Amino acid sequence: MHVSHVSSWLMLLAVVALWAWPGHAVDPPAPISRLAEIRGMSRAELAKNPPVHIRGVVTRSRPSSLFVQDASAGLYINIARARIRGFMSHDVSIPDVPLGSEVEIIGVADPGGYSPIVLPETITILGPGTLPQPPPLDPTRFFSGAEDSQFVQCEGIVEEVVARKDYTDCWWLAARWRSEPFVVAVSKEALVHDPATLVDAVVRVQGPTASMSSTRGGFLAPVVFVEEPDWLTVIKPPESAHFSSPIVPLAGLTRFRPEGHDGHLVRTEGVVIHVDPERAIYLQEGPWGLRVETRQTGGLAPGDRIEAAGFISTGPNGQPGATLARAIARCGKIGSRFPGGARCSTA
Known about the structure:
Blueprint: H1 3-20, H2 35-39, H3 43-46, E1 51-62, E2 65-69, E3 74-78, H4 79-85, E4 101-110, E5 117-128, H5 139-142, E6 151-163, E7 170-177, E8 180-187, E9 202-213, E10 219-226, E11 232-236, H6 250-253, E12 266-276, E13 280-285, E14 288-293, E15 305-314, E16 320-331
Parallel strand pairs: 3-5, 8-10, 14-16
Antiparallel strand pairs: 1-2, 1-4, 2-3, 4-5, 6-7, 6-9, 7-8, 9-10, 9-11, 12-13, 12-15, 13-14, 15-16
């Protein structure tokens, strides 16, 4: 190597060293400002916790979290995890954020458990905002988890209403659109209907979505959070109470129907051949059998004839299966004996 070349390399190294010296640090990346950009990042990119500076409208508000949507997308803001991870001090007090508020959030992006989230450092309420209008439902995206944290609208038949111990401020509605299950979490303050009257009703709901997922982050079903009374509309009330509809024989539950299976509640009867306590009852009528998923198994024994009302489960391609889900059971003829010699003892 010539001396002149050596001198050139030494000068270049000196310049690089001078640039790397404190006072000449590389500028940090500009904060991300669009929620859609965060949603489009890979988990590896999000794991680096890139800075964000976003503005949007609050579509659900809780002390530990927010759902926020801007013109490009929606995202989950996890305040509780931000405190645990040290991005937000435990000494920082977050005021109640009214639904529909426009907020400014400074923090970092994160992969989250299922989908991208934001871990806030500061949350500033800018004033009232305008809630987004839900677009037409894209079933493929909705039932695959791609609409997580987005403000959506969907319809379905309510199959069950449950009060959960871990969500004391909501009623949980298990619903189904065609053969696809989803959950509606309705704020108790927003529900103007008697919960019992919603079973077998067709409802239209709107709100931000979350995703039920496995412990490994696999998608299970979408959840829609209903925060306002007008976010839930009963399109069609239940056609009948559980045990006032005509009895459909076991043989007819899954047979061909020219009108098709509409997904509504059905009532049937049969003889108990097996009881799985607090989980299921197995019925038979001649060569036909049925699994009835119900917690009401107490006092039943093989040989009892019972009535059951529930929803026919569906298999691949929406075909009806041999299970009656979310069912209520009662004795068909109390005190009568049937093959096996057992006596039905429940009311």
